[in-house]
Amino acid sequence: MSDKHCPYCGQKETEENCGEMQAASKYICQVCDQSFGGTKDSPELHCDEVYFSHGGFFSGNQSLRIEERDGYADLTVSSPFSETEGSDVRFRIMLSEWMTIKKTMFYELFVLDWKDEYNDSAILDGTQWELKLTFDNRESVKSVGSNDFPALFDELTELFTPYFDQGTFERD
Predict the structure, then answer these.
(1) pTM assigned to the model
(2) For 24-81, how does the pLDDT look when each residue is reduced to its tens digit (9 = 90+)?
(3) What are the chain's domains?
(4) Do residues 28 and 15 lie in contact, with contact meaning Cβ atoms separated by under 8 Å?
(5) Could you give the angle at the alpha carbon of 59 between the alpha carbons of 54 and 64, nearest 5°?
(6) Which of 53, 123, 149, 160 lies 20 to 30 angstroms, CA to CA, from 109?
(7) Domain of life here (predicted)?
C-alpha cells in the first residue's frame, strides 16, 4: 500500500504499480481500480503558470495566479467582489516555494489526472471553479467545474488558502 490518495475516488487504498519504468511512480487504486500518476516529463519543471479560481454568485469569486519569472514567482490574488481596477494583491514567492506547490499539485493531488470538466446540473446556484496550468513543453491543461469537484479538490483549496488569506490580510 502507498500513502497516496486516489484523485478519482479519494481513497487511500492505493498501490504503486512497479510494472513500468518511468520518472514518477504510477499508482492503482484498490477501490475504484483507476490508475494515476506516472508522468514521464517532470511537469513541475515545465509548468510556468497556474491559475485557480473558485466561488459563486453569493460568495464572490477568488482567483490566484502564479507566474514563474527569473529567480522568483509572481503571485496575484483577487479577492471576492473585487471589481475595481488595481485591487489585486501582488507579491513574490521564492522559486523553492513555487516548486513545492507544483510538486504537491502533480505528485500528491495528481491534477494532471483530473477530468476536463465536473458538472452537477441539478444545482442551479453554487460553486464554480477553474484550474489552468500552462507549460513550456506542451499544451495548457484546464479543469473546470460547477457544483461538482474532483476527489482531492479540498486539498487543492487548502494548498492555496494561505495565499488567499495573505491577499485578504494585505488588503485590509
Answers:
(1) 0.86
(2) 679 999 999 999 998 778 999 999 999 999 998 766 789 999 999 988 999 999 877 5
(3) 1-40 (no CATH), 43-171 (3.30.1560)
(4) yes
(5) 30
(6) 123
(7) Bacteria
